[in-house]
Amino acid sequence: MIVGMNHFTVTAEDEQKTLAFYTGLLGLRVGHRPDLGFPGAWLYGNGPQAVLHLYFGRPVPAQRTGVIDHMAFTAQDLRAVKARFDQSGVAYELRQQAGAGTWQLFCHDPSGAKVELDFDPSETP
């Protein structure tokens, strides 16, 4: 039945900081979003489908992540991404997955959502 993940949704505490994080730092782009009757944004990677939906103007839940621990994206160019993080001052943890060798960069968005970026084992930090 399920053929893939469609999108994640984040309730953004600060619209400007959240958009700067996901578009400026992570490289997603704001794209088409139908009029849903409330403020928000749909963010796209390289494909035609929005991978992240943002809500603006809604209260952030007291339990920030609830039962969902994090969202993960497949990424490229670990060296450049790491340099952008270093320059931005956004805290992150970089580790190489045992066995598979996948590089995993973990960080938090401005509202506290945990984000994982996965890079091919052949890349070097």
TrEMBL record:
Spell out the InterPro entries in the cross-references.
Answer: Glyas_Bleomycin-R_OHBP_Dase, Glyas_Fos-R_dOase_dom, VOC_core
Which residues are in the VOC domain?
4-120
- Pfam families of this UniProt entry? Glyoxalase
Spell out the Gene3D superfamilies in the cross-references: 2,3-Dihydroxybiphenyl 1,2-Dioxygenase, domain 1
Q: Give the PANTHER family listed for this entry.
A: F18B13.24 PROTEIN (PTHR46142:SF3), PTHR46142
What name has this protein been given in UniProt?
VOC family protein
